[in-house]
Design brief:
The protein is mostly helical and 375 residues long. It has 2 domains: 13-156, no CATH class; 170-335, Intergrase catalytic core (hpI Integrase, Chain A, Orthogonal Bundle), CATH 1.10.443. The protein contains 15 helices and 7 strands. A 3-stranded antiparallel β-sheet has the order 3-4-5. A two-stranded antiparallel sheet has the order 1-2. Strand 1 (13-18) and strand 2 (21-26) form a beta hairpin. Helix 3 (76-90) crosses helix 5, helix 7 (185-197) crosses helix 11 (302-314) and helix 12 (317-324) packs across helix 13 (329-335). The longest helix is centred in the middle third of the chain and has 18 residues, at 125-142.
Length: 375
Amino acid sequence: MTVYKPKGSPYYHFDFQFRGQRFYGSTGMASKRDAERYERDQRTQAALGRTEQPTLTLDEATGIYWSDKGTFENNRITTEYQLANLNRIYGAATMLHDIDDLAVSKAIARRRGETKRNSKDLVSNATVNRETELLKRVIRHVSGTYKVPEIKWARHNLKESQERIREASPTEEAALFEVLRRDDPDLADLVEFALLSGARKDAVVTLLWSKVDLANGTADVRTKGDVWHRILLTPRMIAIIANRLKVGPFVFTYVCKRPSPPRQDRPRRIKGERYPYSKNGWAKRWYQALKDAGIIDFRFHDLRHTAGTRVTRVSNLKVAQKMLGHTRIETTARYAHVDEADIRGAMAAAEQSRNSPERGNVEPLETRRKPRKNG
């Protein structure tokens, strides 16, 4: 028998092949003996040439997808979170073939009204689209064996916001660090490390000494989706870390300038002592530095955009993808921007590489024509 219990499932699943066709899914049985009996029935039905496809719940369908594909994906933590969202929104016990266009529309409307984790901001259209796309993949994955719905997916695709193109210019960068080095050297180190590494804000703020290997030039950071990503350290990044005071588990700390009483999320602060950065407690100083530097419409996350764009400019999109830790290169393409100067430079380089008659590399067409034979 080939029954087994997937991780996290209370039920045994079956998986066998008959005449080149695969039959698999949940038995709906918590007892192995009952599950084996169920599997024998499935084998009998397959041998008799069963034509009606069996049904299954959304929870069972997502479990099959997770066991077969999701658990092996690079972004499996995100996939697991999204599968849980699908079961929560549509209902884990909902029969998969009962999910129609109306059900998808209602689920999307509900999801758009929810907020992001640890934030008051609403879930973006892009996030909703990714989850709907995952549902589509789940249904396609089990469609060969189970009864599945027919859904017009194109009508459910939400319009996503236009790509934000914001890169720090060399002049803006110089002005910003002039202000930061003068007024807040600790924050200057944090910002410069973010700019050079392309790491997200939370990843830089929570960088641990225990995850830094200066000898090998690497640092591991916890990033989006609770995934660990390895950063390669440049000489300047190594210098920044090496010159930080080691006063706790976190690399980046600051000197308290104003004492504060204890709060629910932290102990009291003493003037002159060093403390780790909180998630947003230093935002006021960051925005003040931007204002003093004369920089407008610039977010901390734009440092990541700037890093991705600069690396792409001197190498390629694949290198930027690895640096930023993206699983999909389409995501990297949104971070790496090009402007007219980039296009003009690329065109000029292409022009220089071609065999142009004006450069003397190609014989003019007139001299290459064969003379006609008389008569």
